[in-house]
Amino acid sequence: MTPPPAPRIVGRDPLPTAVADVWPQGGEPETWLLSVSRYTAAMDAGAPGTILDAEERERASKFLRAEDRERYTAAHLGLRELLGAYLGMAPADVPFTREACPGCGGPHGRPAVSGTPLHFNMSHAGDLVLFAFAGSPVGVDVEKLQPASVVEQVAESLHPKERAELDALTAADRPAAFARCWTRKEAYLKGLGTGLSRDPAVNYVGTGLSAVPVGPWAMTDIPVDGAISGGSGYAAAMALLTSLPHA
Q1: Closest by alpha carbon to 230, among 19, 31, 38?
Q2: For 179, what's the count of Cα atoms within 13 Å in the CB-facing half-sphere?
Q3: Residue 139 sits in a domain of what CATH number?
Q4: How many structural domains are present in the chain?
């Protein structure tokens, strides 16, 4: 898979057009980036009440910290805005559902839109929200670079080869290498629909500059750091199912 271009920016770049041969059914996936602070400042104050559904509004209201509530609200409004543009419907009318969990079969797998083969995923951290849209299952993750103490603790959950790669680096190089590895891993697990209920130590995705595919899943690092003013110190990745697994 050809590395994707830098994500388009929600609120700056033109929205996608709802034409059958435009949204990424069989071509390269498309990624979008949203700044929570800029999006929140520009949005209509009544948008959450008229566009989000009852479940989304209830979940937003349960966040104790204003910044968490704003991030959740901006992420879900942005997702509805983009999906509505791709699918040619009002953002409030996008019919969300959940695919079956690949682990237990319960209705808490990948998010989906009823009646369309357009696949999507989103992730948020700090001031950034990353979205991906594709014609096959896709997962994304964006993370803020973590201090050495966090890297040392969380690295214990990685694949043994990934831990060895981090140990071989200088202390100054580990945070960026860990972030590359962790975002690839989370993107893959989100693409599968399992999330972290699947042991992140099982599959090797690598810590180096070149992402390592996992079976039919292609891993790609997404260039988000510095893409938006004030949005520095981030790493992001996408996992895309490129073919059906062999029987």
Answers
A1: 38
A2: 22
A3: 3.90.470.20
A4: 1
